[in-house]
Amino acid sequence: MEGQVYIRCREEDVSIIESIQDEAISTYKEMLINEVVRFNGMSTDDIPCTIIIDNKYLESIEDNEVTGSLGGFKMFAKKGRIVCS
Length: 85
What we know:
The protein has 85 residues and is α+β, with helices and mostly antiparallel strands. Helix content is 26%, strand content 21%.
């Protein structure tokens, strides 16, 4: 379980991430309660989870055609030791 997750996205996608973060946190907590025995019977209020939008943004393809991205995001947890993209 990750109590704090950092999201890195393109600067122009921050508003999209902000608009869905509450729903994403709720879905994550419900999945933990339903699928992890340790959390059975717990309330979603008992499970800490915070999304922090990183202010280091992914490059946009308009800025760099070689390494830039069209969209998407990367998630970091455990001080950057866990990365999902």
